[in-house]
């Protein structure tokens, strides 16, 4: 198990770790780091050109607990990842002054937003480009409403099982998109392919 609590760790080659946790500090570098069983993120920043990967065998739990969590690299989900509401009012930031961030939900992945957990486009304030790319399933659970401010590019499924899910950053829906429940669009420009 690797726990990053403070400081900086630079990953410049591909690494696989059974259990990865971030409770502070910065994870950066050009290499990919893959969690094969669990990934827990409660504080800190991820940056660099590499990827942080939640494998198909893994679960991811993102809960901004002690401070904001900042994604300024690619978070690739092939497993089951859930973004929870912060107990202290912090949010999940994508992008910063140095670069954009990308959440890439692969065909095998399920990315769940629970209750009122939201994703804020932080990099846009510096002209950075971020994205949520979904080829798998994006799901909303809980009674609250989640807002996703980063641009959405959807070719998979979006399921609102309870509460509300609103996209406000623009984006696109391909012809393979499938929507279940009340999916809200609020602001931004969207391209919707014929048959979506």
Q: Say what oligomer this is.
A: single chain
Shape descriptor = globular
Q: How many helices does DSSP assign?
A: 0
Structural class: mainly beta
Cα(first) to Cα(last) distance is 42 Å
**Elements, N to C (H/E):** EEEEEEEEEEEEEEEEEEEEE
The gyration radius over C-alpha positions equals: 16 Å
Q: Which stretches are low in confidence, meaning pLDDT under 50 for 5 or more residues running?
A: none
Biggest beta sheet attributes = 18 strands, parallel
Average per-residue pLDDT, rounded, comes to 95
Helix content: under 10%
Q: How big a fraction of the residues is strand?
A: over 45%
Could you give the count of β-strands?
21
Description:
There is one protein chain. The chain is globular and about 45 Å long. Helices cover 0% and strands 56% of the residues. It has no helices and 21 strands. It has an 18-stranded parallel β-sheet that branches. The protein has a three-stranded parallel β-sheet with strand order 14-17-20, with no helix packed on it. It is mostly beta strands and 196 residues long. The protein has strands at residues 2-4, 8-10, 15-28, 33-54, 59-62, 69-77, 80-83, 92-94, 102-105, 110-114, 119-121, 131-134, 137-141, 145-148, 152-154, 157-160, 164-167, 171-173, 178-180, 183-185, 190-192. The protein starts with a strand and ends with a strand. The mean pLDDT is 95.
Secondary structure layout plus pairing:
Blueprint (H helix, E strand, L loop, with lengths): L1 E3 L3 E3 L4 E14 L4 E22 L4 E4 L6 E9 L2 E4 L8 E3 L7 E4 L4 E5 L4 E3 L9 E4 L2 E5 L3 E4 L3 E3 L2 E4 L3 E4 L3 E3 L4 E3 L2 E3 L4 E3 L4
Parallel strand pairs: 1-3, 2-3, 3-4, 4-5, 4-6, 5-7, 6-8, 6-9, 7-10, 8-11, 9-12, 10-13, 12-15, 13-16, 14-17, 15-18, 16-19, 17-20, 18-21
